[in-house]
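Work Package 3 (structural annotation) set out to generate three-dimensional models for the target panel prioritized at the project kickoff. During this period the team completed the workflow that converts sequence records into discrete structure tokens, so that structures can be stored uniformly alongside our sequence database. As a representative example, we reproduce one entry of 107 residues exactly as it appears in the project archive.
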Amino acid sequence: GLLVDNNFAGKSLLFFSCCVFAVLSNHLVSMWVFLELGTFAIAPLICLDGREASVRAAWKYLKFSVIGLAINFLGLLCLARAMGGDISVDSAPGQGATSSSVASIAT
């Protein structure tokens, strides 16, 4: 049968909080960091039962997720270079994306 994990709720809350902080962050690099932390937080939940197949699946998930997020980070670097070095999402803290910030990205 399945082994009972005493830290299942804690691991789930860690993953959930990483995802929430990624959505709420207003800086692209901090969003990337929280996505990467979420990737590492979900891996123990994938191999929860400890079977060889689930451990292999967790390693495959980590490998593909880390490679995908590394490519994402390279895209963020290219975006930062195109924007002149500023990689924040908002033009000012507490404000949403304005038409001037969207226009500066488009040009």
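The helical segments are 8-24, 28-46, 52-82, 99-106.
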